[in-house]
Amino acid sequence: MTLKPSVFDPQGRTIVEALGSMGYGAVRDVRQGKYFELDVDAETPAAARTLVTEVADRLLANPVIESYRVEVDGEETSPPVEPGRRRVTRMVTLGD
Amino acid sequence: MTLKPSVFDPQGRTIVEALGSMGYGAVRDVRQGKYFELDVDAETPAAARTLVTEVADRLLANPVIESYRVEVDGEETSPPVEPGRRRVTRMVTLGD
User: Fold this and answer.
1) Do the Cβ atoms of B36 and B71 come closer than 8 Å?
2) What is the pLDDT of residue B96?
3) Contact B48, B40 (CB under 8 A)
4) Which residues of chain A have pLDDT under 50?
5) Domains in chain A and their CATH numbers?
6) ipTM for this prediction
7) Contact: A15, B41; criterion CB under 8 Å
8) Strand B27-41 relative to strand B86-94, pairing
């Protein structure tokens, strides 16, 4: 997860400046966020998404300054999975 | 980025336990990592990948306890991009 664009990101700014002084001026902008991989028991990818979204809202993300996105294995844009209940989900908080 | 599996992840463990006490026992495992989005100037997606990999090795990742993966817009598995030099890359450190 990363801070919403309207929130000043001092860590990202510091990284850009450090990289500039190391000769990496081609890196124009950096946004830092948090990443979570969750293994969950769920009958379907949709159920896994519902569960992880609830967990994000209640525990993992700070809705005042962060937004997030969720990826679930087995959904159309993600790798297919073996039959069974265990599903790997990835969550990144991201700017709006 | 997340810790290599051989490295004990107390934050992930704490999240699983907190979720269990909130009724989310279906969340079996959590691995927490860091996420970076970098906007870089590069002629090609391959050049962007080379740049970001170097930046990860030199500044963003700790190779003793973390491994990472890089995604570049315009590579075959990522969204296509408009012509031009500016490329969005995403970096997640991940277990091996």
Assistant:
1) no
2) 42
3) yes
4) 96
5) 2-94 (3.30.1280.10)
6) 0.78
7) no
8) antiparallel
